[in-house]
Amino acid sequence: GFMRVLSPVFLDNFPGQVVNIHPALLPAFPGLEGQRQAIDYGVQYSGCTVHFVDDGMDSGPIILQSVVPVYQNDTADTLAERILTKEHLTYPAALQLLAEDRVKLQGRRVIINWEERIPRQPRDCVLEWLKVKDRIKEVPCSD
């Protein structure tokens, strides 16, 4: 992952537009080594969380989560492998919802339109990227 905390200046320029995936079921076990924290705490289930990035550590509003069991003989590595499999499904699913404009942010609450697929042309996404990419270069991204 990126493994850096984004600056408030950067986030203020892109409100509700920066997302992250974290290998734990937030709000539990933020920061590094979420898998190790889950095992040490003795949880029965862990997973991954796709969330909007805010100025806290893995504290932004949650978009999607996927769950995996934690087995008694798990290590941080075996749990991480199982979570990674879910991450490879969950992150693209969240990005698809965002690309189709089916995710609305109301304060900390994320509202997902599960009913209606809003078609977008690939060129629409390219045009949006072209509008944003020059702004990204102008804003300091981390401290």
Give the SSE layout:
Layout: H1 8-13, E1 19-22, H2 34-41, E2 45-52, E3 62-69, H3 76-99, E4 103-106, E5 109-112, H4 122-138
Antiparallel strand pairs: 1-2, 2-3, 4-5
Describe the structure.
There is one protein chain. With 143 residues, the chain is of the alpha+beta class. It has one domain (8-138): Rossmann fold. Helix content is 38%, strand content 20%. The chain contains 4 helices and 5 strands, in the order H-E-H-E-E-H-E-E-H. The chain has helices at 8-13, 34-41, 76-99, 122-138; strands spanning 19-22, 45-52, 62-69, 103-106, 109-112. The strands form 2 sheets. It has a 3-stranded antiparallel sheet. It has a two-stranded antiparallel ribbon with strand order 4-5. A hairpin with a 2-residue loop joins strand 4 and strand 5. The chain is globular. The protein starts with 7 loop residues before the first helix and ends in a 5-residue tail after the last helix. 23% of the residues are buried.
Mean pLDDT: 87
CATH class: Alpha Beta
Per DSSP E runs of 2 or more residues, the count of β-strands stands at: 5
- Give the SSE string: HEHEEHEEH
CATH architecture: 3-Layer(aba) Sandwich
By DSSP (H or I, 4+ residues per run), the number of helices equals 4
Q: Radius of gyration in whole Å, from Cα?
A: 16 Å
Count of structural domains: 1
**Uncertain ranges:** none
Give the overall silhouette: globular
Task: Spell out the CATH superfamily.
Answer: Formyl transferase, N-terminal domain
Reported by name, the CATH topology is: Rossmann fold
Distance between the termini: 17 Å
Largest sheet entry? 3 strands, antiparallel
Strand content: 15-25%
